[in-house]
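TL;DR need structure tokens for one chain.
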Amino acid sequence: MNFTVRPPACSFAARTGAPRASRHPRRCERATVARTPAPPVHDMSVPELTALACGNHPHRGRAVLELIGRARTDDAATDALGELSRLPSLREDRMFHLVSLAWAAIIGLLAAATERSWATAHAAFADLDFDDRLALLTYLESTTEVAGGTWT
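>> reply
TL;DR here they are.
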């Protein structure tokens, strides 16, 4: 048998006459999903952002991140993040891997670095389950080691 000769480079679908499906899901028209337009979170008030984050909306992560951005200068945003971090829906909604939206709220409160935000973050942290607190501490320690800094 001659192994230097390769078979023709055509797919099974081309050989059988079957319609060829696109390999990339975004190029396949069947895979497109109707997405809701992103709400203008920069123009929303703190109660509107809180309502958006509390609801089952696909853009509630944007609302939480906008509140995190406002927490340094707005006490209402700090209080809203403290309340949101206690919601079971935000504790279960993962941004990536183990990081939930509640964790993002707590980390954002710590990053705001005001006395009120730190007190709110510590109270929200105390309300987490033991396993969740341990996982959050492990995450914070690992990201601090990667960044080369220390928490003071």
